[in-house]
Design goal:
Order of helices and strands: HHHHHEEHHEE
Oligomer: single chain
Structural class: alpha+beta
Strand content: 5-15%
Shape: elongated
Helix content: 40-55%
Length: 176
């Protein structure tokens, strides 16, 4: 015999998804809004983990009938509180910050790629050229430095914008 495909498992399930989804989403937005723009800004690997975890938890809340609204609200609050706590610890403790943060890395400096940095981050010279093009420049020679930011984006700094280099030199390779 053929298998029956259920298109609708009852209107109660649909109503639950609509109610829990709306309330859960609203609660999540309020929690994230209350923690400030850092949570919603450009993501670092640290922020990516909380985003994936919240998304997974929200998906489970929507699809699992055995997860109640209060349990969902507590789960969201716990995850956001942990993210906030980690952010406070990162700000207050240099050691904790070094443990969880990824530092920017100079991958191109004063006319030369930095081979160790390219290798460590699995980048190629083609990636440097791409970053330069995305910055609106037509040549690698127009870049004084290219920094792989902690969020995975590239900052391309032209010679005209290098200034004293104080935002780049802490991450630049030491001269041989």
């Amino acid at each position: 015999m053929g298998q029956t495909v259920f298109i609708l498992d009852g209107w109660d399930a649909v109503a639950r998804i609509l109610l829990v989804g709306t309330l859960g989403y609203t609660w999540l937005v309020l929690l994230l809004r209350g923690t400030g723009p850092r949570t919603l800004g450009t993501m670092t690997p640290f922020d990516f983990v909380i985003t994936v975890t919240l998304g997974s938890a929200f998906g489970r809340v929507l699809t699992a009938q055995e997860v109640g609204l209060v349990e969902a609200a507590v789960t969201f609050a716990l995850l956001v509180a942990l993210q906030w706590t980690f952010a406070v610890l990162r700000r207050r403790s240099r050691g904790f910050s070094r443990l969880v943060d990824v530092s920017p890395t100079v991958v191109y400096f004063r006319g030369r790629p930095v081979p160790e940095a390219l290798h460590r981050h699995r980048l190629t010279e083609a990636d440097l050229h791409s970053a330069v093009r995305e910055s609106g420049r037509g040549s690698l020679s127009e870049a004084e430095a290219i920094v792989l930011q902690s969020d995975g984006t590239f900052a391309v700094i032209g010679a005209d914008a290098m200034g004293d280099g104080s935002s780049v030199t802490p991450y630049a390779p030491t001269p041989a």
